[in-house]
Amino acid sequence: MCTLEKRGNIFSLTLTGDGSDEHRLNPTLIASIRSALSEAKSQSTHGTALITVAEGKFFSNGFDLAWAKSASGGSASEAVNLLRHMVELFKDVVADFISLPMPTIAAVTGHAAAAGLLLAISHDYVLMSRHRGILYMSEVDIGMTLPEYVMVLMRSKVAKPDVRRDVLLRGVKVKAEEAVAKGLIDAAYDNREKAVEGGVRLAEELIKKKWDGEVYAEIRKSLYPELCGVLGLVSRELVKARL
User: What pTM was estimated for this model as a whole?
Assistant: First the structure.
């Protein structure tokens, strides 16, 4: 599950777990994240920002394969169908972040694997702790292709072709310093606390601009036209300047 807390003009979205700190993405957690983002959107004003953090040693360990197996009743084909269902549900989470009317920051303080990495890079900025955590796309290792929206998200957010190649075709596990050098994240910090503090400082810097959230979201969408196309997001022209 997750919680949403607002302090001043900063929303904190925290992945809290359900007896496990892996924060695996199943329909329940996906719905919880979408509900929190909807609440943040409804409370957004000029000059707000959102930080996503997670409890424990994982940021998110990807889709909940154990849930798919359990809910399938022992049917391998049904488990695959449930996994596909989760993949489709997560598409809406990506769309929610891309259209959220405020800057977003992921403070990755633990492992971010597969859909967990996708969750992180759906934010505008990604900060990471050096103390613990790797970034990892596991699909080539487990034997699973990626849907179109995931590939477009990777192309949109990971600029260097060789980095995309190594992450997707070699399944490399990337630590914080290397992730900065590869352009996967924006900054690395010594530990969890400093990464979260860095996220708060960045949020404070951004909210001072008092940007109009709708305008911010539309400019963000215009940065990623291919991604918006596959997510079904439509851009709008807005003029709210004081002329």
Answer: 0.96
Residue linked to tokens 């969750």: 119
CA distance between the termini of the chain = 45
CATH of 2-231, one of 3.90.580.10, 1.10.760.10, 3.30.1600.10, 3.90.226.10: 3.90.226.10
Is the Cβ–Cβ distance between 127 and 198 less than 8 Å?
Answer: yes
Is the C-alpha dihedral spanning 15, 17, 22, 24 positive or negative?
Answer: negative
- What would the pLDDT profile of 205-223 be if each residue is shown by its tens digit? 999 999 999 999 999 999 9
- State residue 191 phi and psi, 5-degree precision: -155, 180
* C-alpha span between 134 and 129 (Å, rounded): 9
Q: H or E segment at 56?
A: none
For position 184, what pLDDT does the model report? 96
50, β-bridge pairs: 11, 104
Whole-angstrom Cα distance, residue 154 to residue 64?
21
Instruction: Indicate the pLDDT class of residue 18, thresholds 50, 70 and 90.
Output: low
Give the C-alpha separation, 157 to 184, whole Å: 8
CB 86 within 8 A of CB 63: yes
Indicate the residue type of 51: I
Tokens of 6: 């607002």
Span 103-157, pLDDT tens digits: 999 999 999 999 999 999 999 999 999 988 899 999 999 999 999 999 999 999 9
Indicate the DSSP class of residue 160.
Answer: -
